[in-house]
Inverse folding.
């Protein structure tokens, strides 16, 4: 079907209309939100995903730009000994270049028509992506390189046209040339607040972030703050068969010790609420131009919205938030005000 011509009876018209309406609703709601936010002097931030769903319009309509015999993923590491297979086809660098990076430009313009800040997920992907052959283990994959400078030039041009700020998600294994390129082009990186409270030797130090990074406690690939404090991410990893139980136990012991030291140094109890409040205010006082707090962290949610390395094993992106903005606990607004006072 992917390679042939589709007739009127080959696709359920109801499904087509459903997706059209869903796209229209998403765009309309985001546009209205951005308009209201701008009227109040508030910037809206969005994410540009690292890849495209294999059944998405971009992939089906321009199949020559994608390598369908492979999937983007990640090589084996300490957290995922078997590596990761993410399930979407990688773009073919030479063909994207010959096409003038048209899809990249279109995606940037579409996002920046609404967002004042855009975070590029896995910004290392502008330099290289890990290709895994279809049906094979991630251990058999290899890196395929693209032109980082050419693509970053496009990012900068589109950001300048839109008057927007760009953040590159430069976490994990980051080739040194990526961080150097971000700095050279004036794009922001990321600082994660967890780093201090995983290490006893650093736990007493106040959380800081440089002026070249946004400051936050996590991303969609990380546990919530409460989940981190309780070690839920470690329990989940072992349940899924990722890593060694003894290693996870050692990490849990070190993390618990660091959290106790961090709480004592701040004169607070080692509770999730007290720790999150104190450390959020510390990030607020940092040199970072943007401090990002995830809404569910504000009320101590333990369950993550996404578990890396899983697809059907966990209900990723399907769980409803416990609160809406309108009925969030009163202490949520108080914490945000306290953080804002530090800016």
């Amino acid at each position: 079907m992917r390679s042939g011509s589709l007739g009127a009876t080959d696709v359920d018209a109801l499904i087509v209309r459903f997706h059209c309406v869903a796209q229209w609703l998403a765009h309309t709601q985001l546009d209205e939100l951005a308009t209201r936010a701008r009227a109040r002097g508030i910037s809206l931030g969005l994410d540009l995903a690292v890849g495209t769903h294999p059944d998405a319009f971009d992939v089906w309509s321009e199949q020559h730009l994608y390598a369908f015999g492979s999937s983007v993923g990640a090589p084996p590491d300490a957290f995922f000994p078997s590596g990761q297979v993410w399930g979407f086809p990688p773009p073919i660098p030479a063909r994207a270049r010959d096409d003038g990076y048209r899809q990249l430009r279109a995606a940037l313009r579409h996002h920046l028509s609404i967002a004042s800040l855009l975070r590029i997920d896995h910004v290392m992907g502008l330099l290289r992506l890990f290709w895994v052959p279809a049906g094979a283990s991630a251990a058999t994959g290899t890196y395929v390189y693209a032109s980082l400078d050419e693509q970053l030039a496009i990012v900068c041009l589109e950001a300048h046209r839109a008057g927007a700020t760009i953040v590159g998600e430069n976490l994990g294994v980051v080739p040194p040339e990526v961080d150097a390129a971000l700095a050279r082009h004036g794009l922001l990186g990321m600082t994660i607040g967890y780093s201090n409270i995983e290490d006893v030797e650093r736990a007493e130090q106040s959380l800081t972030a440089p002026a070249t990074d946004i400051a936050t406690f996590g991303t969609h690939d990380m546990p919530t703050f409460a989940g981190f404090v309780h070690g839920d991410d470690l329990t989940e990893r072992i349940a899924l068969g990722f890593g060694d139980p003894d290693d996870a136990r050692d990490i849990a012991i070190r993390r618990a010790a660091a959290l106790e030291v961090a709480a004592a140094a701040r004169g607070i109890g080692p509770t999730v609420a007290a720790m999150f409040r104190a450390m959020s205010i510390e990030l607020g006082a940092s040199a970072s131009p943007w401090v990002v707090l995830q809404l569910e962290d504000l009320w101590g949610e333990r369950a993550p919205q996404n578990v890396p390395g899983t697809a059907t094993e966990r209900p990723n992106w399907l769980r409803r938030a416990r609160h809406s903005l309108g009925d969030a606990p009163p202490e949520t607004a108080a914490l945000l005000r306290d953080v804002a006072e530090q800016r």
Q: What stands out?
A: The mean pLDDT is 93. Residues 43-187 form one domain. The longest strand covers residues 128-133.
